[in-house]
Amino acid sequence: MAKKLPLVEVTWVDSTSYTRWTTRDGALGMPLIVITTAGYLLDKTRKEVRLVRSMAADDDVGDVFLIPRSCIFKIKKK
Predict the structure, then answer these.
(1) What is the pTM of this model?
(2) 3, 9, 22, 68 — which has fewest CB within 10 A?
(3) How is residue 5 annotated by DSSP?
(4) pLDDT confidence of residue 3
(5) What's the burial of 51, exposed, middle or buried (CB within 10 Å: 0-12/13-18/19+)?
(6) pLDDT 10s digits, 32-56
(7) DSSP per-residue letters across 19-72
(8) CA atoms of 41 and 76, how far apart (whole Å)
């Protein structure tokens, strides 16, 4: 039986790119994008949080997602 992992919601800021012509002032006003990602918490270190989106009965995991800790605002258990 697979070890149960906690379901969490991570709110974090992502790198952002805008690919259009704009003024310099317009470029200075472009915001970073805040993302909310849900998944099962596999591991949390000083450098990163590792989520998985899928778990199999044999303890295999799928869709591993890594988020740098420096980008995270909050982690909320669901």
Answers:
(1) 0.85
(2) 3
(3) -
(4) 73
(5) buried
(6) 999 999 999 999 999 999 999 998 8
(7) -S---HHHHHTPPPEEEEEEEEEEEE-SSEEEEEEEE-TTS-EEEEEEEEGGGE
(8) 11
How far apart are alpha carbons 73 and 36 in whole angstroms?
10
Nearest CA-CA partner of 11 in 29, 28, 35: 35
Specify the 3-state DSSP secondary structure of 17: coil
Provide the pLDDT for residue 4. 87
Distances in Å between the Cα of 65 and the Cα atoms of 31, 37, 56 are 23, 9, 16
61-76 residues labelled b (16+ CB within 10 A) or e (exposed): beeeeebeeebbeebe
